[in-house]
Design goal:
heterodimer, A: Alpha-Beta Plaits, Rossmann fold, 4-stranded antiparallel β-sheet, globular, B: mainly beta, OB fold (Dihydrolipoamide Acetyltransferase, E2P)
């Protein structure tokens, strides 16, 4: 009988491999592009003109060919990419192909996203591919984690639709709303949590998080050290997990002190290293406990503007807009269109990659300190000489970090739970080996179906919840304030499951194993600091121990009832 | 807010929004205020004062409120 589950597992693995080979596949272009593919029919042509054509030359081009050009997208002027409605695509395309101002002309091809994710502009997001972002989506996408974004505010643009956002706070004189009146903050928020695999726009690193907007920079992009420090204090009191600061300025004792105090309180504080291109960090990046982030370009090495020096801890893609397609593309506010997908560069853009990656790891149940360690340990050593002043530990690799957590943390922890369940089953005489196998699998699954981290699942779908540790479901569901609640780090779920299903003969082995797995989860979470109920104070240990004991008792009770029934 | 007189190359960059940068021999400054776009790319002389709000996303150096700017001969 045990062969069936094994065959099922092998089958799922094979399917997973098939999916993985498709993961990250670029958007497929329809067959037959170029002028020759145009039909003799009315339609739309796309024209890639010479980049150096000014407005006068464009007007002359339109007049010469009797065309009305429209930009393909608001951001496509620099690339001179236009659309034109024509009466005869084939004839017009042949004529235009002979014009020296035309680099490429062909019919507009409706793209169909076949890969994963299905965000149409994913192909332009070299940065997300470079850091292995898809692994983070399948590992819970940061669900249950709150990230404060201290910036120009956040406006819920179209491609943030469905992303959890807490009430915002404004720390700019005369401004009451935390909505973005500039565009920088929304872009940064998009890198952290753009709606992903939603068939629209672009992707983000950790779309499962709850964003908390803090408007600390004005519509002109300026802010003061004392007000930013006040916002940090507020965010800490509000119980956020990560603070993202894509901002900086001269050395400021008050700001650096606030940032370090936040880190001492257990919040992960991430700040931009700066864009001077020179040595020497300002505040708040110069905080001893602050994670200062340098920027890399599309080739993965140092971006020319990235500030370096003592204090740079890690690097991430910040983009390089001097290279075609080298910027970081996200959805943000636009004065004319309402919103637009814009490519920016800067350590401002690198910082949210790190914040998002840390949120993913926290969402997997990794303790804050351990999350930083694993991100540093798995970073790509770009400089080649270990830790240095340009890249710190290296360029982040979220895919490697997620794998490291699964292999070195989740897998051993729940393998131990499975072994315990098996031992308990044998000791109590559960009966046939099939039941012991069920209990072992259930104990293992009590830590979340971590193997889903290797599958291309939607970060917004139900499967993403199954990848999470069940202990975190309540906190993730209830949102900020509940994540670290004692109600979450408790035995309620296994006790309820035992109460309702423990006497069901068929389900009992699963229920017993699940309760035991939850007990192991509570104990190990207390030991490694992942779970810190009741403020993490002196009562946290007895609380976790007590609830782990309740889980064990539930498992023993189920085992005893099963044995009695089996004996009878 | 101390007054400053600077001379250097004026550049425009897009660190999350247009940022005017003055690159001098001593370092980089971020300029704000009335700066004619025709001066971008030129060597310029700048009079101004350090802005009261020195924090932002530009992070290229001290932020200067420009009171006067002219091209170098």
């Amino acid at each position: 009988m045990a062969r069936k589950p094994l065959a099922l597992t092998l089958g799922i693995s094979a399917l997973a491999l098939l999916w993985l080979t498709r993961a990250g596949a670029p958007i497929q272009v329809g067959e037959g592009s170029g002028p020759a593919a145009a039909r003799s029919a009315p339609g739309t042509l796309v024209l890639d003109l010479r980049d150096d054509l000014d407005d006068g030359a464009l007007a002359a081009f339109e007049e010469r060919h009797g065309l009305k050009l429209e930009l393909s997208a608001a951001a496509s002027r620099d690339e001179a990419l236009f659309r034109a409605e024509v009466a005869d695509m084939a004839a017009t395309a042949r004529r235009l192909a002979g014009d020296a101002d035309v680099e490429v002309v062909e019919p507009v091809v409706e793209m169909q996203a076949l890969g994963y994710p299905d965000d149409p502009l994913w192909d332009a997001q070299w940065n997300m591919r470079q850091i292995g972002a898809p692994a983070g989506w399948s590992a819970g996408a940061g669900r249950g984690v709150t990230v404060a974004v201290l910036d120009t505010g956040i406006t819920p643009v179209a491609d943030l639709d469905g992303i959890a956002m807490a009430e915002g706070h404004a720390f700019v004189p005369g401004v009451e709303s935390a909505l973005d009146d500039h565009g920088h903050g929304t872009h940064v928020a998009g890198t952290i949590a753009q709606a992903t695999h939603n068939g629209e726009g672009v992707a983000g690193v950790a779309p499962g998080v709850t964003l908390v907007p803090y408007k600390v920079l004005s519509a002109h992009g300026g802010g003061s050290s004392d007000r930013i420090a006040a916002a940090i204090d507020h965010a800490v009191d509000a119980g956020v997990d990560v603070i993202n600061m894509s901002l900086g300025g001269p050395p400021s004792a008050v700001l650096t002190k606030a940032a370090d105090a936040a880190a001492e309180a257990g919040v992960l504080v991430v700040a931009a290293a700066g864009n001077s291109g020179r040595r020497g960090l300002g505040s708040p990046a110069d905080g001893k406990l602050v994670i200062a982030v340098g920027a890399t370009g599309p080739k993965g090495d140092k971006a020319p503007y990235s500030t370096y020096g003592v204090g740079v801890e890690i690097a991430a893609p910040g983009g390089d807009t001097t290279v075609e397609g080298g910027g970081i593309l996200q959805d943000t506010v636009d004065r004319d269109a309402g919103h637009a997908f814009k490519a920016f560069q800067g350590t401002s853009m690198a910082t949210p990659h790190v914040s998002g990656a840390l949120a993913v790891l926290l969402g997997m149940g990794v303790a804050p300190g351990a999350a930083v360690d694993v991100l540093f340990r798995t970073a790509v050593d770009v400089g080649g000489d270990g830790f240095d002043e340009i890249y710190g530990h290296g360029r982040i690799d979220l895919g490697a970090a997620v794998s490291a957590v699964v292999w070195r943390d989740r897998l051993p922890r729940f393998a131990a739970a499975a072994l315990l369940a098996t031992a308990l089953g044998l000791l109590m005489g559960f009966g046939p080996g099939r039941r012991i196998l069920m209990a072992g699998v259930a104990a293992w699954a009590a830590g979340g179906l971590f193997f889903l981290a290797w599958l291309p699942i939607s970060p917004g779908g139900g499967l993403a919840w199954l990848a999470m540790d069940p202990m975190r479901w309540l906190g993730a569901w209830m949102g900020p304030g509940w994540t670290h609640s004692a109600w979450v780090a408790a035995a309620w779920v296994p006790l309820l499951v035992t109460f309702f299903f423990g006497l069901n003969r068929k389900l009992a082995p699963w229920v017993g194993g699940f309760a035991l797995g939850c007990g192991v989860n509570l104990l190990s979470g207390g030991l490694d600091g992942t779970l810190a109920p009741l403020g993490g104070g002196g009562w946290a240990g007895p609380w976790l121990l007590g609830h782990a004991a309740l889980c064990l008792m539930a498992a023993v009770a189920v085992g005893a009832a099963l044995k009695m029934e089996y004996s009878a | 807010m101390s007054g400053v007189n600077l001379e250097g190359q004026l550049e425009r960059d897009a660190f999350g929004g247009p940022v005017l940068i003055l690159r001098t021999a001593d370092g980089s400054y971020q300029l704000q205020g009335e700066v004619p776009s025709k001066l971008v790319g030129l060597r310029v002389r700048v009079k101004g004062a350090e802005a009261p709000a020195q924090f932002g996303f530009g992070m290229v150096g001290p932020i200067i409120d420009v009171s006067h700017i002219e091209p170098c001969d």
